[in-house]
Amino acid sequence: MLDVTLALLSALECATEGIGFANEAGLPAAVGFAIGLPAGASLLLRRRWPIAVVLVSIAITPAEMGFLLSLVGLYTLAASDVARRLTVVLAGVSVVGTFVVTFARFHQDMSQDGYHPGLWLTVFFSALMALGLSAPPVLLGLYVGARRRLVESLRERADGLERELALLADRAEERAVWARNEERTRIAREMHDVVAHRVSLMVVHAAALQAVALKDPEKASRNAGLVGDMGRQALTELREMLGVLRTSSDGAVAAQSSSADSQRLAEVAAAASARVSESVVAAAGAADEAAVGDGPCLDGLEDLVGLSRAAGMVVELCVEGEERPHGLRVESTAYRVVQEALTNVHKHAPGAKAVVRVAHREGEVALQVENGPSDGGADVGLPSGGNGLVGMRERVSALGGVFVAGVTDVGGFRVSAVIPSGEGWMAA
């Protein structure tokens, strides 16, 4: 609407001034009207072709037409994205044209009135008129164009920052999900290493009580059977809890099941705790030995092996190299690997001999737990959750080590791990 209004006003102005110019030149008024009307109406195209509009205004300057056309055209040209050099050239041509026309008209009018001003006065007045008609629209257009470009740049930067913030938010959410899953896995691994081993030994001791009861064999066998049943149930429920912890949370499914999982975890943990407590009370003598602390470092391997020996397993411990500190995380991981390997021997190879080898090397510690085939000893029926080897591999890999496990040529099983003991793990 603004462009249409300005074009109508410019067309009327140019048409009127064209009629006046035609009269002075001795031409028909229709000629001046026909020239001024389309010239003034060209202002409608100022946004698309600002250069053409300015050229039209320069072309009709000698006829003293297009005052509004010149002002608006120069403003639009300066505010557009046209090269600044071209804008300066066209503005200069417009100033020169206005100066020449003003100079000639001023001199002619003064001569008709019988007044002959000096040359410098005529030049000064003409220059003032030329600059006064051309400089303000050009300067205003340059300012508005710069403001527009600044606002557009700020808007683009704001859009870019918004996209970057959205991307960072997505990455933060992914990291949060990853951290939650890592924490769940870590908790599951810790509970499996710390709890499952001791409960497994309780079951083994209960089986031993059933086999060798010195006094009141019937009662001792009944109590030992009760301890074994409770221990097996406790292990089953603990592994059920570990399975819930290891389940990865993804989107809506995790959101819908979070409260149910929490309630389930609480119920299972409470039941498991109660059953383990009952097992400790019912098998006080056997559990006292199993309660020997398993220190989270390689210094506790002797006590760990002693627990398995007390449960009837033949275990040989071989330590090679000069003992040296390897860092808390490294020694704790090495301890857990040996612990889980011995637990698997109790479960899957009852009566088999096990050999534990530990080698202290420069910058690393190597472990190997190997057992022969089962000699047909009584199977105590320990349940297996299938997470032991996975947990050992995760622990060793997290420290940049190598873990290998598999069946030996003679039918036994071997677990091997090499864990680097760098300065980063020493600090941890």
Spell out the CATH superfamily of the domain at 293-428.
Histidine kinase-like ATPase, C-terminal domain
Q: Return the CATH class of the domain at 293-428.
A: Alpha Beta
CATH architecture call of the domain at 293-428 = 2-Layer Sandwich
**What fraction of the residues are assigned to beta strands by DSSP?**
5-15%
Q: Number of helical segments? A: 13
Distance between the termini: 73 Å
Helix fraction, binned, reads: 55-70%
Please give the largest β-sheet.
Answer: 5 strands, mixed
The outline comes out as rod-shaped
Organism: Streptomyces blastmyceticus
Pfam family, one: HisKA_3
Protein name: histidine kinase
Domain Signal transduction histidine kinase subgroup 3 dimerisation and phosphoacceptor: 183-248
Which properties best describe this structure?
428 residues; alpha+beta; Heat Shock Protein 90; five-stranded mixed β-sheet; 13 helices
Task: Report what the structure shows.
The chain has 428 residues and is of the alpha+beta class. Among the domains are: 2-117, no CATH class; 293-428, Heat Shock Protein 90 (2-Layer Sandwich). It has 13 helices and five strands. The chain has helices at residues 2-25, 29-41, 50-59, 67-79, 84-112, 119-211, 217-246, 251-282, 284-290, 301-310, 328-348, 388-398, 423-427, and strands spanning 315-320, 354-361, 364-371, 402-407, 413-420. The protein has a five-stranded mixed beta sheet with strand order 1-2-3-5-4, with helices on one face. Helix 1 packs antiparallel against helix 2 (29-41). The chain is rod-shaped. Residues 248-259, 280-295 and 423-428 have low confidence and may be disordered. It is an enzyme of class 2 (transferase). It catalyses: ATP + protein L-histidine = ADP + protein N-phospho-L-histidine. Pfam families: HisKA_3. GO terms for molecular function: kinase activity. Its EC number is 2.7.13.3.
